[in-house]
Amino acid sequence: MAAALLCACSGYVLPGALPVPRVAAASGLAALRMEADVETLPLMMPGQKTWMPKAEDMALANKKWYIVDAEGMRLGRMSSEIAKILLGKHKPTYTPGADTGDYVIVVNAEKVMVTGKKFEEKLYRRHSGRPGGMKLESFKELQVRIPERIVEKAVKGMLPKNSHGRELFRHLKVYKGGAHPHESQQPEALTFSGLTVAPDSQVLVMIDPDDPTCAEL
Known about the structure:
Mean pLDDT is 82; it is low at 28-34. The protein has two domains: 1-41, no CATH class; 60-196, CATH 3.90.1180.10. It is globular. By secondary structure, the chain is α/β, with parallel strands linked by helices. α3 (75-87) crosses α6 (147-156) and α5 crosses α6 (147-156). The protein has helices at residues 2-10, 22-27, 75-87, 118-121, 139-145, 147-156, 163-169; strands at residues 65-69, 103-107, 123-127, 134-138, 172-174, 188-189.
């Protein structure tokens, strides 16, 4: 009550105490007036110019299906390209946080390639949730047991770490061998070039004519 009397004596009028002009009322936009003799402030954003994907842009019927043969491909480089397809970065309608990507099928997951010593030294960890339940498994061992998990973990690590990334991860289908149950979707073959399919160039050839042990390698 005291604040209202103080404002009335000083000539200052609260923004909500003034009537809305007819022009603003007709347009449905609220006008803001700070003082009695100050004109209405202009609107900060008179028109929304940023394009946002519509429902038809994210509809399941408008999504494409791609198939990738992982035989002889490098795991990391292939996974980064697959993540771009899932996110929709290959489309001009790409919008962060919007499901504008497509579906990807990966076959021959057991034939994916890694470079250097990762085949023997790369480790995968999982925990049962109980004390002492940490399990370690090398790339070689996991490729024999569940080769699909190798590609899934690589692609999942390149997606957003939130509910949007979990939804995009559901658009990835990984299978061991060349068969898959998605023939009705008529997937398009997706091929990569460059270092994604290049053989490992980091293999060191130990050939030294002065070292007698090199002949045994």
